[in-house]
Amino acid sequence: xxxxxxxxxxxxxxxxxxxxxxxxxxxxxxxxxxxxxxxxxxxxxxxxxxxxxxxxxxxxxxxxxxxxxxxxxxxxxxxxxxxxxxxxxxxxxxxxxxxxxxxxxxxxxxxxxxxxxxxxxxxxxxxxxxxxxxxxxxxxxxxxxxxxxxxxxxxxxxxxxxxxxxxxxxx
Length: 171
Prior knowledge:
By secondary structure, this protein is mainly alpha-helical. The chain has helices at residues 19-32, 37-46, 51-63, 69-82, 87-96, 101-111, 116-128, 138-150, 155-162.
């Protein structure tokens, strides 16, 4: 069958037998969790999909609105913040996922904004499990502060989160 006899599908006809399995793999990946475009491209490449097939699959998923890096960045940021990660750690994870810096900044700004100290305090409280800094030895306090920094919170957010504890990081 020639491309003319395909009618309106001519230029967008599936690329042989490789298109459907690649599309199904993409659907399976997105069904497990939201993916960025770069993550999905990497997965399809790893599976051995042809670059033209990958482009068609990505294009189709965007048409269906199953693939949207801005929505992915916002959703991933909210999820990581809920798990106690700060903006720096979230930015690093979005970078690894291939999200454009502008989209990552938008998602981070939307989620954290002026709430970073509150989110740092909530992460700290979950980690303390009802204890206070004053109950901890100096080494434990220092370790906890390093943990917060490692979770991606800024020094000012950490200080604000600990403010209620009467500057517990000082002896």
